[in-house]
Amino acid sequence: MSNVGSAVSDINGSSENVAHASSVDAEPVSGKVRARLKRAKQKAADAQVIVIETGRKSARAANDYAHDRPWTTAGVALGVGVLIGLLIGRK
């Protein structure tokens, strides 16, 4: 979210610089840009909430699976570890 905030700040600063450099009154344009930036920031925040909730649900499901089937989980982890080891060991 901090990246979105810094992008909004950068664009706000750029729009003010354009307004000062332009001979045309840029206040209506600047207002439109700020309104769109506000909507974009809100959509990014909404998407962030959705991603966090989906991640939490996935983590809970994985945790439940690992607790319900510990030997299966250990076997799969062992198999993946061996596969990665073989791939790294090949030179």
Automatic annotation (TrEMBL):
Residues 62-91 form the DUF883 domain. It comes from Paraburkholderia aspalathi. Pfam families: DUF883_C. Residues 1-29 are annotated as: Disordered. One of its GO terms (molecular function) is ribosome binding. This is Membrane-anchored ribosome-binding protein, inhibits growth in stationary phase, ElaB/YqjD/DUF883 family. The chain crosses the membrane at residues 71-89. Keywords: Membrane, Transmembrane, Transmembrane helix. The keyword Hydrolase does not apply. InterPro entries: DUF883_C, YqjD/ElaB. Residues 1-17 have a biased composition (Polar residues).
